[in-house]
User: Fold this.
Amino acid sequence: MSTKTPAAPAKQRAQESRLPNTGSKKRFRAVEPYIWIAPSIILMAIFIVTPIFKVFQLSMNKVTRTGQLKGFNGFENFATVIKDPSFALVLKNTIVWTIAVVVLSTVLGFLLALFLNNEFKGRKIARAIVVFPWATTLVIQASAWKFIVNTDYGTLNTLLKKLGIISASVNWTPTPTAWFAWEIACGIFVTVPFVCFCVLSGLQSIDNSYYEAATVDGAGYFQKLFQITLPLVKSSLTVSTVLNIIYVFNSFPIIWTMTKGDPANHTDTLVTYLYKLAFYNGKQGEASAVSVIGFLILLTCASIYMIYTLRKGDDTL
Amino acid sequence: MKKFLALALALAMTASLAACGGGGGGSSAKQPDNSGSGSGAASNPPAPSGDKVAISVIAAEYGKQTKDWWASFQNEFNSSHDNIDLNVEVVSWNDIYTVVNTRLSNNAAPDILNIDVFADYQADDLLRPIKECVSDETYAKFYDAFLEQSNIDGTIWAIPDLASARAMYYNKDILDAAGVEVPTTWAELKSACEAIKASNPDVYPWGVDMTTDEGQACFAYYSWTNGGDFTDASGSWTLNSDENVEAVEYIVGLVKDGLTNTDPATQTRYDLQELFAAGKLAMMIGPNQISSYVASSDTPINFGIASIPANEGKSTSSVGVMDRFMVFENKDTDAKIDAIKEFFDFFYEDTRYSDWVIMEDFLPATKTGGEIMAAANPDAASWIEIVGSAKFYPTAQAKWADVKQGVIDVEQQALLGGNVKDLLDSLQSQIAG
Assistant:
C-alpha cells in the first residue's frame, strides 16, 4: 500500500497528460477504416458509379449521333427500344444464352470438379489443363472456335476427313440456330473452369470424416453426394452461379467475334445489340436504354437468387 | 436484415460487373487525351497569346505505317512553319468515333478531323463550311464529283482525303477450266456460276458479303447495276423501288441456289478475300487493295479485274468509298483559319499527297494526284478511271446510318426466307414515313 500511495498521483498525471492524445487516437481509430477503403471508394466512384450514372442519364435524354445531349425525354428511348420487333428476339436470345451457358457449365463444372477431386496420377496436370480455357482471352477462344467450325478450312472438317468419317466438307453452321448453339458451346467451354475451381475449393474443405462416418452408416455413393457433398459446396456453387449469371449475361466477345449477332439479330444478345445500336447505328440514347434494361434484369435475378439462398440459412457468403 | 444484405450485395455485384461487361452508352475514350500536350490545342480555340497558332488534328489510322507517316508530317510541317504548332493524333478506326464524340461532349473538338462520315457533325452545327478553310489553289485540285458527296443544302462541308473503288475480280484459271467467259450481265454471271460449280464443286463460284460490316455494299452492287438506287435525283428515299426488289431477289437467289459462299451473313469481305487468294473462290466484287493482297500471297493466283456485271439493258457501276477532312467550328481567329489553310496546302502538295495515297494503298481524290499515280503505275490508271466514274453512298443524308443498317437487315432477313418486297416496303415506310 505504502508504495502505491506516492505512485498514484504520478499515474494520474500521466493519464491526464495522455487524455487529449487518447481522444484523437479514438477519433483516428473511428475514421481509420474509411481512410483505408477511400482509394477503392474513389476508384469505384470514378470508374463504376460515374459511367452507370452517365448511362442512366443518356437513356433518358435525346442524344444526337455525335453524342450531344439534346434534352430530357423521359422514357421515350425505352419505348422506342421495346417497340422494335427485334428487341423481343434479342431478349429471348439473351435468356436462352444465359440459362444454357450457366446451367450447363455449372453441371459440367461440378462433375469435372468431382472427378479432379479424386486421387489419381497426373491430377496436377489435369487441373492445369482445365485452367487453360479460363486463362485464354475470350476473343482468342471465340476466334479459335470460329476457325474450328469453319466450313472451308476449319479443323473439325479436316479432322473428320482425315479420320474418314466424312468425305466432303460439312457446313456446321447452316442456320442461325446452329451458330447460336456453337456460341453457347464456346461459352460453356470457357465458363466450366471457373465453376470447376469454385467447387473444387469447396470440395477440398470438406472433412473426410463425414464420408467415413457415412460409409460406416452404410450410405451409398449418391447418398453421400446429395447428403454431404452438395450441401457443403452449396455456398461455392452460389457464388459461382451468381457471378456467372452476371458474366454470361454481359458477355460480349464470343458472340461478337463469331457472328456479330447476324443474321438479322438472330444471334444477338442485349450486349451485342446495344453495341450495334450505339456504335453502328449511332443511337446512343436507345443503346443506353437497353443497357439500363439489362442492368435491371440482372439486378432482379441476382437479388432473387441471393435472397432465396440466404433465406435458406446459408449465411456463409 | 439478410434480405437487405442480399440486395446490397446483389446491387454492388451487378453494378460492378455490369460496368465491366456492358456500358455501351457510357462512352469512354480509350485513347489518351493529347490535345493539351501542345499549347492547349483544341480546348482553347483562340490563338495563344504567344507567337504560335496551335492546330489539332485527329486522323484515322488506315494501316501500320499511318502513325509514322503523320509523325514525320508533323515534324516537317512544324519545322517549316514557325508560327504554327501542329499536333496530329492518329486514332484507330475502332476507337475514332468514340474518341471524337467524347471530345465533342467535353467541348474539346479537334480543329481538323479525318474520318469517313460528316453529316452527323454537320447536323449538330459543329462544322465550318470547308471552302472557308482551304486555299483556292488546293480546292481546285479535287474531282467535282467527290466534293459533291459532301454537299448539304448547297454547302460543301468536307474535302476528300482518299478513295477506293470496287470492281469484279475473277480467277482466270477457274473460269478457263469451266470454259466460261468473263460475265458482263446477270444472266451470264448465273450461267458462269453454274458452269463453275459443275466443273469444280470444291470452288465457290461467287462471293457475297451481307454482314453487318459491309452488307450495304452488296445492296449497292446489285441495285446500281439494275438501274436502282438508295434515293432518286431529288434525294428522296426509293428503297422499295422495283429495281431494288429485283436486285435483292437476284442475289439472294444466287445464295439459295448454292452458287455462292455458304454463309454470306457472317463471312466478311476479308474472309472472301482469303478464299479468293487461296483459289477457293472464282469471282468476287472487291476494292482495289485486293490486287496487292493477292499478289503478296505465297502462291499468287492468276486473276483479272472487270466491271461489275449489270442486269440486261442496264449499265454497270462501280461503288466508290471516300473518306474526308472536315474542320470544326471552334470560334477560330483569322490567323487560325490561315494556319488550317497552310495545313491543307502542305498535305495536298502533289508529291507528298500521292506518296501518302500510294503508301496507304488507296486511290487519290485529287486530279493532280491521279495524274501522278497513273503515270507511275499503269495498273493504278484503270482504277483511277473507275473511281472517277464511281457512284457513292448517300452519306450526306442524315438517315444514311439507319438506311445502311436497314438494307443489311433486309438482306439477312431475305436469306432467312423473308419476302424481299415486304421487307423493303417496311424499311421504306420506316425511313421515309
Notes: Residues 1-8 of chain A have pLDDT under 50 and may be disordered. The domain at 76-315 of chain A is CATH 1.10.3720.10 (MetI-like fold).
